[in-house]
Amino acid sequence: xxxxxxxxxxxxxxxxxxxxxxxxxxxxxxxxxxxxxxxxxxxxxxxxxxxxxxxxxxxxxxxxxxxxxxxxxxxxxxxxxxxxxxxxxxxxxxxxxxxxxxxxxxxxxxxxxxxxxxxxxxxx
Length: 124
What we know:
With 124 residues, the chain is of the alpha+beta class. It is built from one helix and five strands.
């Protein structure tokens, strides 16, 4: 085998290895940038003004968690927000929230909910 040919083959091999690692580094950088883009427009919802209080007497006694409003503290708009809860044990309700729907919630916007979650601990 010709020594000059062998040097050219080795150089081409190392060039291919360097190009492969360069492509891998570009792919990783692209994925990081894409993830940062998604994070920059993500909505973050916070329940504001919530409290817990007892209601009813005797067998009808239960607790209620009240939610005054919901606020979007993220950078992106929240689309099609659907709040609902129904948790049952042995076909008896334990936690119930009536359905609340919001079509859009812009960044730094707050909407009054007036939601109540009824907690029936004796059914648990």
